[in-house]
User: Fold this.
Amino acid sequence: MPNLSSLSIYDLVIFTIVLNLKNNEKRLKMKQIHLLSLLMAFIAISCTCSSSSEINQRKQLFDFDWKFKLGDHPEASKIAFNDKDWRNLDLPHDWSIEGDLNPDNPTGNDGGYFPAGLGWYRKTFKAPKDWADKKVGIYFEGVYMNAEVFINGESLGIRPYGYSSFFYDLTPYIKTGQNNTIAVKVDNSQQKNCRWYSGSGIYRHVWLSVKNPVHIEQWGVQVTTPEVSKEKATVEVKTNISNNTDKEQELTIQAQLKGKGSDTFNNEIIVKLAPQSSNVFSQKITVENPSLWSPENPNLYSADIQILNQGEVLDQTEKTFGIRSISYSTDKGFQLNGETVLINGGCAHHDNGSLGAAAYDRAEYKKVELLKAAGFNSVRTSHNPPSEAFLDACDEIGMLVIDESFDGWRTQKTPFDYAMVFDEWAVKDVQDMVLRDFNHPSIIMWSIGNEIIERKEPQAVKTAKLLSDAVKEIDTTRAVTSAMTAWDPEWDIFDPLMAEHDVCGYNYQMHQSESDHERVPSRIIVQTESYPRDAFYNWNMVQSHSYIIGDYVWTALDYLGESGIGRYYYPGEPDGEHWTRNFYPWHGAYCGDIDLIGQRKPISHYRDMLYNPSKKLYMAVKEPNPEGGVIKETMWSVWPTWESWNWPGYEGKDIQVEIYSRYASVKLYLDDQLIGEKATTIKEEFKAVFDVPFKEGTLKAVGVENGEDKETFILKSAGETALIKLEADRSTIKADGQDLAYITIKLTDKDGIVQPNAEDELIFDVEGEGVIVAVDNANLKDTSSYVANTRKAWKGKALVIVKSTRKAGDFTLKVSAPQLKETAITVKTE
Ligand code: GAL
Assistant:
């Protein structure tokens, strides 16, 4: 039986007739009836959607089959340019991560010593004849940076900011019925322009849009929920419609809201739109018994908006939104749906570790999954707007967001950063962020900046007002914040600047909050950055002061660049914080609660337990000082602490075992011999440390409440490395050429216990419908390439990321190491 969906109506009719002719037997009758009903259904769908396939063209993924070449190629903007010998690739793409790390690369410690430079992309495509009367546009979600886009040799403009999404109208330039070429010059050659790893290239999706001359504008739908209660909600849908014809249009706007259930809530209005004009139309719809959105219950709705003219659908779009209310006050803090929520937040940069900046949907989703699993309820997208997929994931998984626009304003932090274009672009960039991200229920605040250098100058107050006003011109439903700090004792002088914000962001300034509250009682405070090791102090402050709405640790996840933040170091290694000098081979920031292969560090379990007291017991071991010296820490580090009871060379010497517990006390056993019992109440900050003379065996922590043993946590010494264990995060992924399988490699002893000192060199090979796109081991001192087929394990673990092809089937990843038996894992792609 052929695949019906791939047949035309004509094919189906012929097929049915043929079947009819051959069909003398009864048993085929049923098949025929079934087929005919399918045929009718198909025809019905085709009829009602006669313009629907065109409408679907309004957003077509334009990521595949690009040509790419490093260096400057000005001739490449022209349609006739010969790009045959250019590399073929699919987006998203980041050329920095593919390059070699080198201490001499101009990105330096900030950019993680990755290469940057300049590159060109080209894509040639045929525009069908029926586009002649359409509006054609191209939408880039993110190009780092200075993207100059050309169509058929004509420049459409340059977008300097590498984190903004932007759109160009191609209609005047498109040659229908012929080939057209989009060329993009990406210039990241002026270094340094960023304080962290930026990546280089078209690192987010590109979309082509083909619309009717009467259409909904780009970012043209805004959904708000002005009234929210458990019984009912008012949803307002505002739609910006353009009429690019010379005729007045009488249009019907149909809005249909739908949640998880089968109920729909509809509204229809008839409007008039003058020739060559655009206008915003509002519809208010009541939703009975709404399922409210929250991090615990991230209920989503869709708003399906159709624009019709005399029954013909001219344009249609579907937007996801959530029904929820948010408010801020000094006495109730941050409230979501009328209930106070204490924010347990983490800051996150945009990179995806070993994938670099490449914003695959799955990678973005995975990041949010990791944050959620670690107990965070909020993320600050430091210091730039994230990908759309990241925000979609926050909506779906339930993660509150501070969406941040900039790291700095007019005074530079690096020689070629945003300060260069601030005056020309800042209002546009911040407004584009708000327009693009408007409908995400997860976003609770807009941030207009981070640790602005010119904060002591009077102009900073004006700039804050300028940006805040620019945000409020579009959105008055969310608070405006920015992250403030002080590098000297002067702090009260910032009061006028703080006053321009609805919520005042403090970076590392929690200790100022009580006296600030006395001086400025109306101030609502959020700690926008904090040191990982101060988790308890900050949690306690948030618990006990209603005007402090939460804390965001720097950072939730490790990231590339800002090399050496959070490093700990050994005798003989250079001293100092990350800004004092280069600490190559450190090429990333080790200050995250979660490392670059997605493993939670002990600090993550501790923080989680503070905010989520249903998590009750965890144990890890503090790395002992080496013979004759001590390990040193930086400001953003925590003491290196591992899930390991394998310390060869330390036999008989005291090693510190650290237990985090939400029980009244904990007991610790080594091989069933009681080492001791200690209280772990709030007074002890829910922690106990035991000195244990090291000998291989089994550590057992027991949580005790009212004299009763409640829960145990075991840490066993591992024997020699014997096995390669592979764990895929999903057994089936999409065969769409973009979906990813994250495969964690664990080197274990014969009983499956991870050998925490294993550093074997692993060799990877993939067969079938998958491609290895990244390898990693979370060791930010390992400078071997992230785009490779080999990687050493670190602490007994490594990660391989495999991308699907566009063909369904499966792939098998084989992992081998010189002394170990090869192991394989198969993942389906469909
Ligand atoms: C803050 C800054 C962050 C990061 C952090 C660690 O001052 O806002 O972007 O640099 O320090 O150094």
In short: The chain has 13 helices and 51 strands.
